[in-house]
């Protein structure tokens, strides 16, 4: 026969052991949860910190790019003393042309721009900048010839002769001879003209124009900027005229 009192004591001892195990397990579980929570909080903080650092870096880079772009654009579209200009430097409208003397499209626009400059007079400032393309073997030399003539105050006269004679010198193996002929017709000092064509100063000027074109995102010729805004090349003289008329009103 089994003693009920003994059973009760055993049950109580077993219950106490179970309670202690439960408490221990509960404490371990609570500790594990606390550690897990701390790890999660720490991990979240790390992610937020890294994310914030990345965002700050990206934002800083973006701001730097933006500032640099604005500064560069401002510099590109500011007319300097070294630019070749026609018209009034105080005019309400400034038309900057990036051009290649050997480019057929530039040759086609040449008479339009010349007529516009005559018609608008002091209402528009016309600016010519060199952008000789690599595929045009004589374009760079033509730019040097125009600059060399400019050293004797005949830039625009040489500019016109080079464009008007584009077909005769473009594919020539001796384009320099044609430019010398143009120089003679303008009564330039031949020796000085030839010296200036090869001068570092003239080459640096052409390169300066070219680099400013790259900064302005020029990728074809001719490219026109009216008051700093790139134009879609007008399809006719009348269309070009209307664009300028709107700018000077």
From TrEMBL:
Transmembrane segments: 41-61
Record keyword Membrane present: yes
Region (Disordered): 1-30
InterPro entries with a match to the protein in the record: Thioredoxin-like_fold, Thioredoxin-like_sf, Thioredoxin_domain
Residue stretches making up the Thioredoxin domain: 52-249
UniProt keyword list: Disulfide bond, Membrane, Oxidoreductase, Redox-active center, Signal, Transmembrane, Transmembrane helix
GO molecular function: oxidoreductase activity
SUPFAM superfamilies recorded: Thioredoxin-like
Domain of life the protein comes from: Bacteria
Family: Belongs to the thioredoxin family. DsbA subfamily.
Name recorded for this polypeptide: DSBA oxidoreductase
Species name: Candidatus Azambacteria bacterium GW2011_GWB1_46_27
